[in-house]
Amino acid sequence: MAEVTLTICTTCRRGEVTDPEAPRPGARMLAALQDADLPEGVAVRGVECLSACTRGCSIVLSGGDARWSYIYGDLDPDEHVPDILTGAAAYAATTDGLVPWRERPVVFRKQSIARIPPAPVAAPSTPPSLSKD
Amino acid sequence: MAEVTLTICTTCRRGEVTDPEAPRPGARMLAALQDADLPEGVAVRGVECLSACTRGCSIVLSGGDARWSYIYGDLDPDEHVPDILTGAAAYAATTDGLVPWRERPVVFRKQSIARIPPAPVAAPSTPPSLSKD
Question: What does pTM read for this prediction?
């Protein structure tokens, strides 16, 4: 199993009034990524609802016990797939998930919803990182 | 070490123009929770910046390999500490992190920023849950 996972919300509507019979933008995003040439060590999965409905399409980039996880939103399945793949490759190349700012795709710099530190491994009061971005 | 972790962003300003010498609202939130009577199995830690700056104060509730993680925002250190503790206790009582809607504090129902599923344990294409909330 790949160490890094791109989790795609398949129920995201992107605020669009869509044909109820048509695939939702989130499902189209998942399909586009499943058809793409994924970076080494990166797998894709779909889930129903990341509870970021006002910011869809939304995705999570996570992997391993030592990496920060990132949630991105306001993504467009027709525009952003190449940037997501570039960002996922840079993320997979780190050990802690912290890609230098200038090496992140612009869409990751501007459309981050939140980030989550790795689970604590020492005393719970020890911050996992002093980085601020 | 406790299995469930409440991670508190200590740099959150809550949009307030604060005295630069005074503790930020996020740091006050952490202090209030550290002083509180925590539910069994729940630990508190502070981190610098969850990158949810427009939604501060922000926190993450996470724990173990099988639970969904939740990010909450727009929290007030002077108002919401009891609700956060109630919500953390309900979360710690689950195995998957999915607390029934009616059992969540109102602040958790209304102020969720996003949720992240647990890491995949089977094939990456297998959704970890079909629940939609």
Answer: 0.88
